[in-house]
Amino acid sequence: MKGHVLILTANILFGVSMPVFKYLLASDFPPEAITYMRAAFACAIFWIVSFFVAPGERVPPKDLGALAVCGLCGVGVNQWMFVTGLQSSSPVDASIIATAVPIFVLLLAAVVLKEPITAKKSAGVLLGVGGGLLLVYSSVHATDGESSLKGDVLMLLNQMLYSVYLVLSKPLSLRYSPVTVMKWMFLFSALALTPFCLRHLQEVPVFHRETFDGMELCALLYLLTGATFLSFLLIPVALKYIRPTTVSMYNYVQPIVASGIAVLIGQDTFSLQKLTAAVLVFAGVWLVTRSKKRDKINR
After folding, report:
1. Lowest-confidence region among 5-9, 23-27, 191-195, 259-263
2. Nearest residue to 102 (alpha-carbon basis) of 80, 120, 124
3. Who's near 190: CB < 8 A, 6+ residues apart?
4. Cα 137 from chain centroid (whole Å)
5. In angstroms, what CA-CA distances link 85 with 82, 89, 157, 159, 257?
6. What is the pLDDT of residues 120-177, one digit of tens each?
7. How many Å separate Cα 202 from the centre of its chain?
8. Can you tell me whether residue 147 is helix, strand or coil?
9. Cβ contacts of residue 74 below 8 Å, gap of 6+?
10. Are 205 and 29 in contact (CB under 8 A)?
11. How far apart are the C-alpha atoms of 190 and 192, rounded to whole Å?
């Protein structure tokens, strides 16, 4: 139960960040600057916290290489592809592509971690995909924006990289503390992003605008703390208790949260389709959690 609560909280934070992220983009915040600030801020905080939470925890070079790959797949390249792809991909395409994450994770976990593909797990993933697609097409704003092949490809690669991160980080999360995992991941991510994103910091409006905008600053602080530091901290903790496939199923909570916020602020309307989509998503999560683990099947 602990792992489910943690990953549910992380995805709620991610879901809230979507309208916040769109707000900052509409306020002329460069996506490269937001990506770099998230990586650099989280890197600094995780390293500071590590001196108190996990002092002296050493990571051998072999695992540092794995953490570098996880950092690029889960944070660095992943986030850069997301924000770049989102600018030229339509909301419909981006949301549809996002529903593929549990499928990627299911296949990768079977190959890398030797997790069995059971009937319940497959049915749960299909239910989640169905709920995600229904939620997309029931949205009032589903036809906003135009799409491009470049944006769709970047979004697809983004989801594939995130799936790789979830699978590869599972054994690391069992060997090291979450803070240690995150401090190295974000360090490698910040270093990789520096040559491409650092120069865009000077374009951030809140840094040179004469009139102080408190709303923009609060939105930025939420992305840095709630949607980056806290949410990414919860993922490796959750992976200690539940499987990567189950963790990936909670991705479907994000559009539900974003849709709920849109309804509350009057940007969207509640419908039977949205309720049905939510039921399908959580039914899918339940089926995946009920599927047998490898050791139980062996016994």
Report:
1. 259-263
2. 124
3. 36, 39, 40, 43, 76
4. 22
5. 5, 6, 10, 11, 21
6. 778 877 887 777 677 666 654 444 445 567 777 887 788 889 889 999 999 999 999 9
7. 26
8. coil
9. 161, 162, 165, 166, 169, 185, 232
10. yes
11. 5
Cα gap 97→240, rounded to integer Å: 27
- Give me the long-range contacts of 10-14 (CB less than 8 A, separation at least 24): 10/230, 10/231, 10/232, 10/234, 10/235, 10/238, 10/250, 11/231, 11/250, 11/251, 11/253, 11/254, 11/257, 12/253, 12/257, 13/226, 13/227, 13/230, 13/231, 14/227, 14/231, 14/254, 14/257
Calpha distance 187→164 (Å, rounded): 19
Residue 159: HSE in the Cβ half-sphere, 13 Å Cα cutoff: 24
Q: What would the two tokens of residue 211 be? A: 């009139």
Cβ atoms of 120 and 288 closer than 8 Å = yes
Q: Which residues, 6 or more positions from 293, have their beta carbon under 8 angstroms from its beta carbon?
A: 115, 116, 243
Write out the two tokens for 74: 């889960």
The residue type at 104: F
Supply 106's token pair: 């299911």
Instruction: Tell me the whole-structure pTM to 2 decimals.
Output: 0.81
Position 295 scores a pLDDT of: 47
Amino acid identity of residue 259, one-letter, is S
What is the DSSP code (8-state) at residue 211?
Answer: S
Distant-in-sequence, close-in-space partners of 235: CB < 8 Å, separation ≥ 6? 7, 10, 166, 169, 247
Is the dihedral angle over the CA atoms 37, 41, 42, 44 positive or is it negative? positive
Token pair of 137, please? 């097409």
How many Cα atoms occupy the beta-carbon half-sphere of 205 within 13 Å?
18
How large is the C-alpha radius of gyration of the chain?
19
Compute how many other C-beta atoms are within 10 angstroms of the C-beta atom of residue 298: 8
